[in-house]
C-alpha cells in the first residue's frame, strides 16, 4: 500500500471514529483501498449514479451482507396485488417529505438484518401521520422480538407485508419509547389496518404514492449499491425476480431527472443519515429495477 492509500484510510478512520488493532488495521486498510479503487474507477466512467466512501468502505460485500441485509433472501411470489388503481392523472413528481410532517428522520438499523422492520414502521408512521395529523416514532424492536409467528425472523429477515399482518393481528404497535421502557406503564398505539399489496406493478406504486402515502418495498442489493452516494441508481448486477429480495426500504416519492429525463423513486434507507443522500437514494423507476416492485405494500388505517 502506498503512503497515499494509508493517508486516505486514516482520514476516513477519523471521520467514522474507527479503531483497530495492528492485525485488523492491515486487513481493513487492504479492503478499504480495494473498495476506494472500485469507487474511483466507477466515478471515472459514464454512469447514472456516483459512488462514495461511507461507513461501510472497510468491509467486503460478504461481511456487509451478513451484517446489514436479509441473511435469507425473501420470496414474494406467494403474495398477490390487491391495490385498486385510480384512473389518474398523476403529478410528475411527489415527495412526502415536502408535503408536511409526514416522514420520520432516517434511522440506523445497526448490525442486524432488520431492515424489514424499519420499512414497516417508516411506512406506518407516515400513513398514521397523514390520517391522524400526528407523527409518531414506532418500535422496530417490537417487530424483531414479537413478529416471528408471521414468518419473520428478527435480525435474519422478514417482509413488511408480513409485519403489517402481525400489527393487524396485534391491534397496533408500541412507540419506540414505550418498547424501550417496558418497566414503566406502557401502551399500545391502537392501529386498525388493512394490508394492500402492489406486487409487480410500478404503475400501482405510483398511484399509491401520488394519492395515498409512502410505500414499503423490497429489492436485491448487490455490491455496487453498497457504495452508492448520489444520482439515479441502476444496475446490471441485480435481478428482478421475486426470490432474491434481500433489503427492504420505503419509497417516499418519485420524480424525473432534469437532465436526461430519467424517472426515479425517492427512497428512505435505514443505514443512517451519513449514507447516500442524507440517508436516502434515488433508483430507476419503471423497469422493476432490482425487483423493487416484487414485494411492495402499505397499510390503510
TrEMBL record:
Residues 9-64 form the Cathepsin propeptide inhibitor domain. PROSITE patterns: THIOL_PROTEASE_ASN, THIOL_PROTEASE_CYS, THIOL_PROTEASE_HIS. Keywords: Disulfide bond, Hydrolase, Protease, Thiol protease, Zymogen. It comes from the Eukaryota. GO terms for molecular function: cysteine-type peptidase activity. SMART domains: Inhibitor_I29, Pept_C1. The keyword Acyltransferase does not apply. Residues 90-300 form the Peptidase C1A papain C-terminal domain. The keyword Protease applies. InterPro entries: Papain-like_cys_pep_sf, Pept_asp_AS, Pept_cys_AS, Pept_his_AS, Peptidase_C1A, Peptidase_C1A_C, Peptidase_C1A_papain-like, Prot_inhib_I29. GO terms for biological process: proteolysis. Belongs to the peptidase C1 family. This is Cathepsin H. It comes from Gadus morhua (Atlantic cod). The lineage of its organism: Eukaryota, Metazoa, Chordata, Craniata, Vertebrata.
